[in-house]
Amino acid sequence: MSTSVxxxxxxxxxxxxxxxxxxxxxxxxVTQQELLERIVTESYESKxxxxxxxxxxxxxLSDDEIEQWLAGSSDWGVETTEDDIDDVLYGE
Length: 92
Fold this sequence. Notes:
By secondary structure, this protein is mainly alpha-helical. It has a domain at 9-52. The chain contains five helices and no strands. It has helices spanning 9-26, 32-45, 47-52, 63-71, 82-90. The longest helix has 18 residues, at 9-26. The chain starts with 8 loop residues before the first helix and ends with a helix.
């Protein structure tokens, strides 16, 4: 079963470069399909690193940054309950 996969010009170019490099290093000619199958198979076998590459690069605020952000808060003298917040967000 053959399925088409759209890739960017950059990805296509990288596949061609890898193809050429494999031929130079090993003397073996591989198709782009073979190359993609090998990449997917190897990535699948060690998928933790691949999955991790899709995580956000979240960096928590430092204590100084938290203090600076909280310094912009002020007490309005009104106590707000969770129900009050839910009413504002989701309606009554």
